[in-house]
Amino acid sequence: MKQEEDLLLKISPAIESMKKLSLCERASNLHWKLVYLSQNRGKIYTGTFVEKKDSNNGTFIIEELALEIQVSMPELPELNSKIPLKVKKIDIPTQLITFVHH
């Protein structure tokens, strides 16, 4: 048991570092996606509806960008429906993006 505890004490810092590195990588990937989207504001993307949050908000996946987003609309489509989405607003420093049904 002592050897296992010693091993855990030795590898715990490495595991924590890997978690932090993973979070940094995700933030960097999102940053560059937002830069790309800000440079291509007029483009229409296909979003797949994957989850209903409440009566007017749902989760969509834009496969082309490997991006999961929340979209608010008066009436949500059926699950797995594909709808055209367009960027409405981007704030790169806060990493916030708003899409609307096009």
Describe the structure.
- The protein has 102 residues and is an alpha+beta fold.
- It has a single domain, classed as OB fold (Dihydrolipoamide Acetyltransferase, E2P) (Beta Barrel), CATH 2.40.50.140.
- It is 37% helix and 38% strand.
- Strands 3-2-1-4-5 form a 5-stranded antiparallel β-sheet, covered by helices on one side.
- A hairpin with a 4-residue loop joins strand 2 and strand 3.
- It is elongated.
- The relative contact order is 0.17.
Topology of this structure?
Layout: H1 2-39, E1 44-54, E2 57-62, E3 67-72, E4 82-91, E5 96-101
Antiparallel strand pairs: 1-2, 1-4, 2-3, 4-5
Core attributes:
102 residues, alpha+beta, OB fold (Dihydrolipoamide Acetyltransferase, E2P), 1 helix, 5 strands, 37% helix, 38% strand, elongated
* Main structural class: alpha+beta
What is the count of distinct domains? 1
CATH superfamily: Nucleic acid-binding proteins
- Percent helix range: 25-40%
Strand order of the largest sheet: 3-2-1-4-5
Strand content: 35-45%
Radius of gyration: 19 Å
**Can you tell me the overall shape?**
elongated
Q: Remind me, CATH topology?
A: OB fold (Dihydrolipoamide Acetyltransferase, E2P)
In short:
The chain has one helix at 2-39, and strands spanning 44-54, 57-62, 67-72, 82-91, 96-101. The chain has 102 residues and is of the alpha+beta class. The chain has a single domain (2-101), classed as OB fold (Dihydrolipoamide Acetyltransferase, E2P) (Beta Barrel).
